[in-house]
Design goal:
Blueprint: E1 6-11, E2 17-19, E3 22-24, H1 28-39, E4 50-54, E5 66-70, E6 75-78, H2 87-99, E7 118-122
Parallel strand pairs: 1-4
Antiparallel strand pairs: 1-5, 2-3, 5-6, 6-7
């Protein structure tokens, strides 16, 4: 398996309740992060795939949002994930992402909960790092 860094980012601002310009209570994103961290205690990749909260992923109209990222791999951003029934599907998809050398997550192979809600598939930086553009 890969020794390269893999991270699951979870937006902790998603599905927040706001009053007078301040967040009230625990957001849906914080709840999702906590559920993922608890479920990951028995996950075979718990020491190979970090799970990190991110203050905002700018996917506010698509709460809750998560992203898979890995060195020299595609980065995926998913949104519209339900707090209660997504955590196991997210970790299953993270496992698929981990074992695929380029991180490709074909639609037909993703868990049902992650077949919809994809917001972005971003090429790995290493594909473009040597690209030089003479402009401006």
């Amino acid at each position: 398996m890969s020794k390269k860094q893999h991270t699951l980012f979870v937006c902790t601002t998603c599905a927040s309740v706001w009053q007078d310009g301040k967040r009230v209570g625990e957001s849906g994103g914080q709840q999702l992060l906590q559920q993922l961290q608890a479920l990951a205690q028995t996950w075979e990749l718990q020491h190979k795939f970090s799970i990190q909260g991110v203050e905002c992923m700018s996917a506010c109209n698509h709460a809750c949002a998560i992203a898979f990222t890995g060195e020299e791999k595609l980065t995926y951003l998913f949104g519209n994930l339900a707090v209660d029934d997504s955590p196991s599907a997210i970790l299953q998809c993270a496992t698929q992402y981990y074992v695929n050398p380029d991180g490709l997550l074909p639609w037909s192979e993703r868990p049902e909960r992650l077949k919809t809600g994809i917001l972005a598939k971003i090429p790995p930086l290493n594909k473009w790092a040597k690209l030089t553009v003479d402009c401006c």
